[in-house]
């Protein structure tokens, strides 16, 4: 039971790493009229889940979890650098490092020692800190993956609810319907080969790049 409770803490919106301050280009997509209602928000989030979160972020998280289990700093460094290199815009790269640095500050205060050989990796992306915490708290890999997917989905849906805007009921309906896609995504991520790990979300990249110069905005990305 305790590992599950630690997972809830790790993926909670109250974790002080600022996850709720990022929209990953969604704010510009709404400003541009690409996303205007519940169906179009569903389509946007489903696309990002299928072509980035499930094919890039989750497989990298799995490999980082394995890297910390084996104390393999070379593997940890490689996949952190791979993830950061896969981020197409300055905002997306900054988001990775900002979340990573925040988690690197938080973890020692929670009793999780960061290996000196991996401190730069942990500072570079939130996924490394999550993988390290999961190892320390003995959170099973499948539960970590499920928790990460849910955390990403919840943050993204809530950003859309605020920005479109939509009612809270619409947000819950989106969570209900989109969460049905998560088990299959997780199984695919567990089976993906190293050579197939990649993201392909050109609309998100365009939206993120445009968001960098958006005149008025609520979110950092």
UniProtKB/TrEMBL annotation:
Entry keyword set: Chaperone, Cytoplasm, Nickel insertion
InterPro entries (UniProt xref): UreF, UreF_sf
GO MF annotation list: nickel cation binding
Compartments where located: Cytoplasm
Keyword Metal-binding: no
Highest taxon in the source lineage: Bacteria
One of the record's GO cellular component terms: cytoplasm
Main location: cytoplasm
PANTHER family: UREASE ACCESSORY PROTEIN F
Entries under HAMAP family matching the protein: UreF
Described purpose of this protein according to its UniProt entry: Required for maturation of urease via the functional incorporation of the urease nickel metallocenter.
Subunit structure: UreD, UreF and UreG form a complex that acts as a GTP-hydrolysis-dependent molecular chaperone, activating the urease apoprotein by helping to assemble the nickel containing metallocenter of UreC. The UreE protein probably delivers the nickel.
Family membership noted in the UniProt record: Belongs to the UreF family.
The protein, known as: Urease accessory protein UreF
Organism: Nitrincola iocasae
């Amino acid at each position: 039971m305790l590992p599950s409770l630690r997972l809830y803490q790790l993926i909670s919106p109250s974790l002080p790493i600022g996850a709720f301050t990022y929209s990953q280009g969604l704010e510009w997509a709404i400003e541009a009229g690409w996303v205007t209602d519940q169906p179009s928000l569903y389509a946007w989030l489903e696309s990002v889940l299928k072509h980035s979160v499930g094919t890039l972020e989750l497989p990298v998280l799995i490999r980082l979890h394995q890297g910390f289990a084996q104390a393999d700093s070379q593997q940890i460094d490689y996949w952190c650098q791979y993830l950061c290199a896969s981020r197409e815009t300055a905002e997306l790269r900054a988001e990775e490092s900002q979340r990573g640095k925040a988690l690197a500050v938080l973890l020692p205060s929670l009793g999780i020692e960061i290996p000196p050989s991996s401190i730069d990796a942990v500072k570079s992306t939130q996924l490394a800190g999550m993988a390290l915490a999961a190892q320390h708290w003995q959170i099973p890999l499948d539960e970590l993956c499920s928790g990460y997917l849910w955390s990403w989905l919840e943050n993204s849906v809530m950003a859309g609810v605020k920005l479109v805007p939509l009612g809270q009921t619409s947000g819950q309906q989106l969570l209900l319907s989109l969460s049905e896609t998560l088990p299959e995504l997780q199984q695919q991520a567990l089976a993906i080969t190293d050579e197939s790990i990649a993201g392909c979300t050109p609309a998100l990249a365009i939206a993120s790049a445009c968001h960098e110069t958006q005149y008025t905005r609520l979110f950092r990305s």
